[in-house]
Amino acid sequence: MKELALKYGCNPNQKPSRLFMADGSDLPVTVRNGKPGYINFMDALNGWQLVKELKEATGYPAATSFKHVSPAGAAIGLPLTDVLAKIYWVDDLGDLSPLACAYARARGADRMSSFGDFIALSDVCDEDTARLIRREVSDGVIAPGYTDAAMELLLQKKNGNYNVIEIDPDYVPAELEHKQVFGVTFEQGHNNLKIDAELLKNVVTENKELPEEAKNDLLISLITLKYTQSNSVCYAKGGQAIGIGAGQQSRVHCTRLAGSKADNWYLRQCPKVLNLPFKADIKRPDRDNAIDVYIGEDSDDVLRDGAWQKVFTERPAEFTREEKKAWLATLTDVALGSDAFFPFSDNIDRARRSGVKYIAEPGGSVRDDLVIEACNEYGMFMAFTGIRLFHH
Q1: CATH number of domain containing 358
Q2: Same domain, yes or no: 314 and 335
Q3: 202 and 341, same domain (yes or no)
Q4: What's 65-132 look like in SS3?
Q5: What pLDDT is attached to residue 339?
Q6: How confident is the model at residue 101 (pLDDT cuts 50, 70, 90)?
Q7: How many degrees, rounded to 5, is the angle at CA 306 between CA 303 and CA 309?
Q8: CB proximity list for 113: less than 8 A, separation 6 or greater
Q9: Do 289 and 267 form a contact (C-beta atoms < 8 A)?
């Protein structure tokens, strides 16, 4: 297929819209089902690059959950703990394949942001992964292939209209890429930068120790940032992104946003949250919304009379600020990547409050010495990668 007509562009008024190869060659994608739109393909093609690079860098199957051309989550296929399986709502599915574990992690890290996501998978979609996808609210999936059993399950979504895209895993884009803005054509080289452990060797802090798991987490954070709208910061732990701050003009706002998402990910693992008395018939999105409100600053919105009865079988006790602070104090060994240098040490101060111990950032700020000093004060490891990862 050399051309694919789309319903419309970013918005319904932006017509006509199509997908094609400028050199007249065949498209590297095949629509196996559904009618993906403009934004769907933007998410799919960015997500595919991310998971392909994650697998190359770590050796594990990888998955990402994309929304509006930025990842809401990204992960590799490490086994799930009982607690993670529960907060990701997959504890009833039994043992999952590595690819399914990767998607459970990518989808589960920030379930509020992942609602209605577009999925990218590094490997052929198997039945386990399709079973997980089938029950979540999602727009579509891209993968290098699908088993027959997986396709059968995916075809049951959205009354048979679920978007399923297959991509040629051997496709290599042209060295030069083009983009038009207001009728003006931009040209740049495709970002072929390889992200691997070599980028983590310029250690600038007194702490030089980088365990293998933390190394993988830093690679996950950096590769995720490569496909996240800038400015961006990514917290990672245990083989997955746990907080992504995308598209903020201020670096410290990226750090705060991503940190608050990492905090929420960890607060959901507190026994007080794990044991919330939900009504048996509550829908998954409503349950996610209730948890998000309960662990936030406006918990009365779900705990007041007339509200809690819609969600819970009995009114839960308030999750106090002191209890949350005590629980978050046990979060440790988090990795953090930044797509550009930290201009002030306030980013390090904020990162520390979310358990960050390992950092990778380009370096190059006139205040690098102050940033390094803050890391040394907290006993953190920091490597200067020397590379920027802006994505627009």
Answers
A1: 3.40.140.20
A2: no
A3: yes
A4: EEECCEEEEEEECCCCCHHHHHHCCCCCCCCCCHHHHHHHHHHHCCHHHHCCEEEEECCCECHHHHHH
A5: 96
A6: very high
A7: 70
A8: 65, 67, 72, 73, 261
A9: no
Task: Please write the tens of the pLDDT for every residue from 296-350.
Answer: 999 999 999 999 999 999 999 999 999 999 999 999 999 999 999 999 999 999 9
Q: Are 164 and 22 in contact (CB under 8 A)?
A: no
Domain of residue 290 covers 271-318
Residue 1 has a pLDDT of: 82
| Residues belonging to the chain | 392
User: Dihedral sign, CA of 225, 231, 237, 240?
Assistant: negative
Q: Which two tokens stand for residue 287?
A: 């349950």
Question: 341, 363 in Cβ contact below 8 A?
Answer: yes
What CATH number does residue 300 fall under? Answer: 1.10.287
Cα gap 300→282, rounded to integer Å: 19
Q: Estimate the crossing angle of helix 127-134 against helix 98-108, to 10 degrees.
A: 30
**Cβ-based neighbours of 176, under 8 Å, separated by 6 or more:** 187, 188, 189, 190
Question: What's the distance, Cα to Cα, between the start and end of the chain in Å?
Answer: 28
Asked if 148 and 36 sit in the same domain, the reply is yes
Q: Which of 145, 172, 199 is where one domain is finished?
A: 172
Active-site annotation, residues:
67-68, 231, 392
* Separation between Cα atoms, residue 318 and residue 334, nearest integer Å: 27
In a domain, 390, yes or no: no
